[in-house]
Automatic annotation (TrEMBL):
Keyword tags: DNA-binding, Phosphoprotein, Transcription, Transcription regulation, Two-component regulatory system
InterPro entries: CheY-like_superfamily, OmpR/PhoB-type_DNA-bd, Sig_transdc_resp-reg_C-effctor, Sig_transdc_resp-reg_receiver, WalR-like, WH-like_DNA-bd_sf
Domain OmpR/PhoB-type: 127-224
Entry annotated with the keyword DNA-binding: yes
GO molecular function term, any single one: phosphorelay response regulator activity
SUPFAM superfamilies hit by this protein: C-terminal effector domain of the bipartite response regulators, CheY-like
GO cellular component: cytosol; protein-DNA complex
Protein name as catalogued: Response regulator transcription factor
Biological process according to GO: regulation of DNA-templated transcription
Amino acid sequence: MTRLLIIEDNPELVANLYGFLEPLGYVLDDARDGATGLRLATQNDYDAILLDLMLPRLDGMTLCQKLREEFQNPVPVIMLTARDPVDDRVQGLAQGADDYLVKPFSLKELDARIQALVRRAQGRNVQGTLTWQDLRVDTRAPQAWRQGQTITLTPSTHKLLLCLMRAAPDVVRKQEMEYLLWGDHPPESGALRTHIHELRQHTDKQFANPLIETVHGIGWRLNAPRTPAPE
């Protein structure tokens, strides 16, 4: 089962994509503007994203850049656009897109390109898991494993842990985590810390080496492996 996110503001094209891809077994979500698309892309786990270039609220180039640089999300992205200048294609690829299709395009070709990108991504992300030191996290289901123990996560702590894993060992800012969970409308200030505390209870409390490190005034990160002191 391949799960796709379509970020496209043309309702006729979205309907055509649903009509062609769903019978092939794809599971589809869609967003009609860039801000909503970015929120869905960072809150859920997709096999690939179909991304229009010209979008309301947040354009496709900026969305792709944020997805790669701010959220460290490696999901394959195919840009869909009515524009065909070489400079646009080069810029799209430079911002982190994996492929580029100019409208109108063949739906059969789109299917083939999606499958090729998903196969490639599965080679990088073995069996749908991410690993950092002795922690392994399922990218699709809210569970993890550490030192032979199975860790059950909530949907929110799962999203936070995946975000930390993808960024490690870099810091994930507090604002990025809040946006990941609640979009543009985060709740009162203590809510995120409650989720981080819950995550630590599951991933760190029972183990000698805590992995989640607070960077005061900035955010959180997974700590780097310790280097033995020279003798």
